[in-house]
Amino acid sequence: MHNIRPAKITSPITTLSDSYNRTMMIGLVLGAIGLGIAAAFSIFSEGGFRQFSFTYLVSFCFLLTMSIGCLFFVLMMHLTRAGWGVTVRRIAELFAMCVAPLFILALPIILPVVIGQDVLYPWVAEGYSAHTAEDQAAIQASGAIPPIESGKAGYLNPWFFTARVVIYFAIWAAMAWFFLRNSLKQDETGEKKLSLKMQGLSAPLTILFAVTIVFSSFDFEMSLAPLWFSTMFPVYFFAGSFLSATALICLTGLLLQRSGRVTDEITVDHYHDLAKLMFAFVFFWGYIGFSQFMLIWYANIPEETFWFDWRINSPYGWQKFSLLLLVGHLFIPFLGLMARTVRRNKTFLFFASIYILVMHWIDHYWVIMPQLYPEHTFTFNPLVDIPCVVGMVGLFITMFCLIAGRKSLVPLKDPRLGESLNFKNP
Known about the structure:
Elements lengths: L18 H26 L4 H31 L6 H12 L1 H16 L18 H10 L5 H4 L6 H32 L2 H29 L12 H26 L9 H32 L2 H11 L5 H19 L3 H4 L2 H23 L13 H23 L12 H5 L5
Helix pairs in contact: 1-2, 1-15, 2-3, 2-4, 2-8, 2-9, 2-14, 2-15, 3-7, 4-7, 7-8, 8-9, 9-10, 9-14, 10-12, 12-14
């Protein structure tokens, strides 16, 4: 038995207060310096501006998946009426709202497509063929799908791509705004009907979210190799998104508490549940990744297996990166998060969350960067790749601080606040 806490916020500081201006400036400086260094060194790299564009896409997808993963976290909290997550839900709501300014960061990806530059996506080039003459002969002999011009040209064209991306961001931003606005309104009024409203719309919005994440994964990452097919890729994309989101929420909560904020509202039991979600989705990510590989490799269809062949059998260094991802993204966090004692250790969870986020970035790097030079050497360039991700993360921090401002970092009058404050893990 334990004492029942009243449904009341007791922490002395529950907002970013005046520090958000300083943190915003730090983020902006990191963003400017990081992206500036990455762009400058890309000039002297073998890939030039194309190298920078690819590593920019990696970091952009890294931030985007964390943001939409937080949006899904909010959806699930309302859909399941989860009382335990009330005190950590506001962090997810604020990060989910970052998807709106992320559209600005998507412009360097969209604009080359609009003007017909195949910097990232080869299908943008006029008269593009997804196959060499040898590929086409092999496809005709196997009776497989026709070339991209006759099979995918209606979908993979610049204006339709741009329209889809705009629609994705409009839907995500509208959903994030809906939940954050009503949650903040409830802080003032305490109206229970606002929770019922958000709960009632969470089911249809989850279906809409699923549609957008499926097609956005096709557009941003799969279409880099327009010949490749995988109906499991959107699930792989989603698994990484939610895993990184839970790690981000856990890390942010720990950092806020280290700065003296929301010290009483987020307890070790909340971190324990976030760690259990991370543990579950580490395994789910690995399961989906292996299932995708096994089915494609077993079917042995040329326009599917080449994607994995580049990453596993090529003599250009990617097989070592694939092994790093297997061990580092699956086995190490799976074994590390298995024990209950470590899932309740804040210091361990702090470093584990950072580690999972680093592995999530590596996962996107593994998906995207081999398309830069499919038959070329391993393309990791620390003078371009690392400053780029540091700069993008700096801008992401700025977005979060700008949105959070002086808003409360925990819901103040949610009807399930008392349940969350008294939550104990069995």
